[in-house]
Write a structure and sequence with these properties.
Helices cover 42% and strands 17% of the residues. It is an alpha/beta fold. It has 2 domains: 6-71, Chemotaxis receptor methyltransferase CheR, N-terminal domain (Chemotaxis Receptor Methyltransferase Cher, domain 1, Orthogonal Bundle), CATH 1.10.155; 82-270, Rossmann fold (3-Layer(aba) Sandwich). It starts with 5 loop residues before the first helix and ends with a strand. Bound molecules: S-adenosylmethionine (SAM). S-adenosylmethionine binds at residues 20-22, 72-76, 80, 112-114, 118, 145-147, 150, 200-202, 218-220, 223, 249.
């Protein structure tokens, strides 16, 4: 069993904050140690100091990828915070489809998408909403995360019976293919609507050529400190189309003095 010294924890926290915006609070120490135990023992690192030096000097980025895969919290599930999806379906899509009739181009970003449940749900709602005329629209969803593990899961698009139990019955037959009666795969038409990419929200540059009509960044900024969060919200704002929306987690809120977004309802914001 490895122990982490205060100095080592501080070094790790500073690294996580600087590169990923993630705020590792001191009470997370036992969790951090337990998540990294196997990495240290499997790679024969004698202690955290040696391990951290290795991560920080590894030019391939592989050690950092492993660290991120271990330390990010990726908990998610289908229909999480379902009121957002109702609002998206009943208010946001009717507004966007009536204002984008010429371009027929909707740009949606699921930032911090974890294993794909959030962007796939959005793709299914969009598919239902447009019906046969969806082919006339470009409704691709960009889904990004910093963890390569969850992105791999998301791309596989395989979920158990239990994981899809909260979805409408019709969706299970319409949008999923049974693998063995217990596990299901999101069907190709929905999978092809979501583009998964690795992207660090703490990057200084956000190289997106076009603005988004809707950004979902739910339950991600809770791991960031307020400066990192405010800077990120400012970047989101600049990347939101006029009249476009930002959804954050229900337990989160924006600092009204810092953010230019208008408050619509808890955890839903809109650009003028
Ligand atoms: C708790 S999950 C939220 C998933 C989904 N949005 C939801 O609400 O269910 C948080 C996700 O944010 C990702 N994340 C954390 N820091 C990030 C960063 N700096 N850049 C991109 N993604 C990050 C994590 O890897 C994780 O998958």
């Amino acid at each position: 069993m490895f122990d982490i010294k205060d100095k080592e924890f501080t070094k790790l926290s500073e690294y996580m904050k600087t590169y990923y915006g993630i705020n590792l609070k001191p009470e997370k120490k036992p969790l951090v140690v337990s998540r990294l135990q196997n990495v240290l023992s499997e790679c024969n690192f004698p202690d955290f100091t040696t391990y951290l030096n290795y991560v920080m000097s590894d030019k391939t980025g592989e050690a950092a990828t492993t660290l991120i895969n271990k330390l990010t919290t990726n908990h998610t599930f289908f229909m999480r915070e379902a009121e957002h999806f109702s609002y998206f379906k009943n208010t946001v899509l009717p507004y966007l489809s009536s204002t984008q009739t010429n371009k027929k181009d909707l740009r949606i970003w699921s930032a911090g998408c974890s294993s794909g449940e959030e962007p796939y749900t959005l793709a299914m709602i969009i598919s239902d909403y447009f019906g046969p005329s969806r082919d006339l629209w470009d409704t691709k969803i960009l889904a990004t995360d910093i963890s390569s593990n969850v992105l791999e899961e998301a791309t596989k698009a395989k979920y158990s019976n239990e994981e899809i139990s909260e979805l409408p019955k019709l969706w299970k037959t319409k949008y999923f293919e049974s693998i063995n009666g217990q596990n299901f795969r999101v069907c190709e038409t929905i999978r092809s609507e979501v583009i998964f990419r690795k992207f660090n929200l703490n990057n200084t540059s956000f190289p997106f050529s076009k603005k988004f009509h809707v950004i979902f960044c739910r339950n991600v900024m809770i791991y960031f400190d307020s400066n990192t969060k405010n800077e990120l919200v400012d970047k989101f704002y600049k990347l939101t189309e006029p009249g476009g929306y930002l959804f954050i987690g229900l337990s989160e809120s924006l600092d009204r003095n810092e953010s230019k977004y208008n408050y619509i309802m808890p955890s839903v914001y809109r650009r003028d």
